[in-house]
Amino acid sequence: MEIVGSVFHIWAVFALIAVAIFAFANEQIELEMSSIGVIAALLLLFHFYPLLDQAGNDLLTPTQILAGIADPALITVLSLLVVGQGIVRTGALEQPIRRLVALRRHHPILAIAVVLATVLVISAFMNNTPVVVIFIPLMTALAERLHRSTSTLMIPLSYASILGGMTTLIGSSTNLLVMAAAAQAGQPEIGFFDFTVPGAVLALFGLVYALIVIPRILPDRTSMKGEVIDISGKQFIVQMEVAPDSPLVGEEAVAGQFPSLRNITIRFIQRGEHVLLPPFDGITLKPADAVVFAGTRKSITEAFSDNPQILQGFLEPDSPTAEASAELGGAAQDQTLAEAVVAPASRMIGRALYQISFHYRTRCVVIGIQRRSRMIRTSRMTDIRLEAGDVLLILGNRSDIMRLRNNPDVLLLEWSARELPATALAWRARFIFGAVVVCAATGLLPIVVAAVCGAVAMVASGCLNIYQASRAIDRRILLLIGAALGLGAAMQATGGASYLAHGVLSVMVGAGPPVILSAFFLLVAIFTNILSNNATAVLFTPIGISIARELGVDPMIFVFAVIFAANCSFATPMGYQTNLLVMGPGHYKFADFFKAGAPLVLLLWIIFSLFAPFYYGLM
């Protein structure tokens, strides 16, 4: 490619890229502000110093600089985020995954391998972030079963999702952005499975490393275990009445536990005037039974997710049955669980639940009570006299829950508000997700069309509402990608990419294409751990294409190298979002990611350097 821009334009763009890299990597500067600042600087630079050809035509207009914000690849990424949110919101993957994790009862080590392999496969077709969110509690359960620290399993979970993302076009937003940057440089559109074979080879070696090596080199922070158990083990006293159409009707206890109420301790069952005490072997639940039990928030949420109909059993004596049943049972997909503390001067202090008309005043239902430092002993939850500091587990519509912020009687713990999975709609979400994948993979529809239609279908089918869909769209991704694509367009128009390609080739004069490809892969892999993987991918794609043209080889080989190298974001926690997600549950430090991830980056670099030249015919 001929360098069409002046030296001033080229170095001005390079200086702006350097400033952008510093700003993106600086945690004290908001990513949104950095991205908007980069876009504004590009617009100002090429407004006051336009890039003109010999005929006086402007080669880089504001429309071209801002085109990245409306790029089909970016629209695809945002649409797939909405589709993924629909999968998470409906719990569409939770039931199959729980059956998979049941392997830990007999083959716990095999279960870890199967779970990580499953994460890898799912991540090939779904955004990595919600996949890791779903699997974090499952990996925690495996760690407890194996009597191991979660610190030995959380980083492998993140890495497995990243490895899976480098095998298909929609596996990672990085892949789609490379496709956009390549198309911007005049390259053909990348197919769904065009780089699956080399990607699968890299993913396989990476998975073996994550299974065998990482647990041996990561610290076993067992000192944190007690703290985690204490936090997650807080129990609420809950009273539930078995409704006539509840799935609990006719359910018989097995080994003292009812299958639909697993991981829950049944205190007693009140049947009319009789109180049934444990053990409950041979006892079958009947309509109107009042079941009083103790359970953690996690176990209660799982019970609701598996059987949304049992929500009808949480009716206060002062609530009209028909109205409450319609609110709780008929719109389960809109229900939110939250915790609230009884305020010191609350009018509820000293009164029982049936006396405070909580549902009438707030349209929310108290389904559990937790009292600090001691266990509550009472015949029924509704008879408990509330005290200041009691924690109430509250169920209601999200808007009603948020209105509790203005209620002087309770202090809402907003961080605790979590929407219940709408499992009744899970089959719709699975169908929509499957249709998007099939249409994109077979070429029946362009990927952007399939993704946008999938996002619309998630909202139209009720799997998501507009508010939930809008929350799935990350504005940081939107602005960062827009800024990166703008910088990429400037590099391409000014000839900066070709200038850098000449520089790289002059440094490696005499080296063959395999050596240059290997060095290029390593350079991109280093930058993706310092900078954002998306920004790295967009910035290096035009450089790789220019190097390939100078060498006289197929530019798509270097484009695929950018995809694989930009996904090698293993060595730092900020390298990829999933690394940040597992940092807390695994109690990791920055050095832990470098210790586990740097060798993996080098391993994949060696595998790529050996495999790619033979696969692409460069030898």
Automatic annotation (TrEMBL):
It is found in: Membrane. The chain crosses the membrane at residues 6-26, 33-52, 64-88, 109-125, 159-183, 195-214, 479-500, 520-545, 557-576, 596-618. Residues 226-309, 323-410 form the RCK C-terminal domain. It is a multi-pass membrane protein. SUPFAM superfamilies: TrkA C-terminal domain-like. It comes from the Bacteria. Keywords: Membrane, Repeat, Transmembrane, Transmembrane helix, Transport. InterPro entries: Cit_transptr-like_dom, DASS-Related_Transporters, RCK_C, RCK_C_sf. Its main location: membrane. This is SLC13 family permease. It comes from Sneathiella sedimenti.
